[in-house]
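Troubleshooting: if your tokenizer reports a length mismatch, compare against these two reference records.
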Amino acid sequence: MTRIDTRFAQLSETGKKAFVAYIMAGDPDVETALAVMKGLPAAGVDVIELGLPFTDPMADGSTIQLAGQRALDHGMNLDQTLDMVRAFREEDDETPIVLMGYYNPIYSRGVDTFLKDAGDAGIDGLIVVDLPPEEDDELCIPAQKAGMNFIRLATPTTDDARLPKVLQNTSGFVYYVSVTGITGAAAAQSAEVGPEVARIKSQTDLPVIVGFGIRTPEAAQDISSIADGCVVGSAIVSEIAAGKPVDEVLAFVASLAEGAHKG
């Protein structure tokens, strides 16, 4: 079992919903990003989703695009991202870390080398949004053989014919994208998300975590009440972009986590 599997088993035993927080590695600089990352578990974060900066993100709205650009402008790359994870693991060996990004940097490194480096650093799972299920042999299957979860995204346009293919080799949890479009573009609506979560859960025993369009503690509670938990990214990244001190960013994260855990 990965740290992700263990964490969700613990949450299930206590009847608690999951709160997943996204930050961009190296945004606005390595020191600040690492300070935020180290503070996330104490703020109530169950799983950390760490963005890998990339020049051409296709699923991210302007907030996360700009975060990636800030990180790249400071020289952030895959090696430094994994160094961040290593530094985090010096103090925390329990909180799951999911690396979210795009395939190009992984392909450039070489899949086998990347998986070894990521595993040694302490990465537990991957979300690679530009690799569809048809390309599972490329990274998904090797990642799972290397002991990592490969987390797939389902969306409002994932119909009943497509869903089994999406779920086929997914592990850890299913990430349901609550809106049609990019991150931060619209607000998630529980009345629309609920039936979709139920549809996915009818075909898998994996936890279903909802992301995109969740910006407040109230929204986190609302969405978590009809799913196994929620992800917040853009709202947290916006706090960092505004230059808020680390303790204020973490206080905001704690309010979101409290809302999600009430769900």
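Reference record two:
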Amino acid sequence: MADAKSYERARDFRANLNPPEARLWLSLRGRRLDGLKFRRQHPIGPYILDFYCAAAKLAVEVDGAIHDVEDQIRHDQRRTTWLAQRGVRVIRLRPADVKDEIEGVLGFIGRVALARLGTESPPPSRP
């Protein structure tokens, strides 16, 4: 369970998405991707996930150049392990891929999410 400070930080992050995150959010929000509900800047435990689909227990991270730094790589590995222990799969995307290959990125996210749900077709839409 996330603490109150994590929820406050997540709220601040939601108000300040970077351009690749904002572009991806436009395609994920409102169940636009295969009827899947995603949340943005969602706190889980001590971490805030860029995007999270609770039904598929899928985290989608848009990782910039800072994630290529050795200390950050180790932090990301610890974070991914912690999330995996709770059944959450993490997908990491490059900002350039979100910018230049959005349809391919969305297809990949959709395939992974649907596979985790055990279905090849989108969930039924809500009335």
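Descriptive notes for reference record two:
- The mean pLDDT is 84.
- The beta strands are 39-44, 47-53, 58-62, 89-93.
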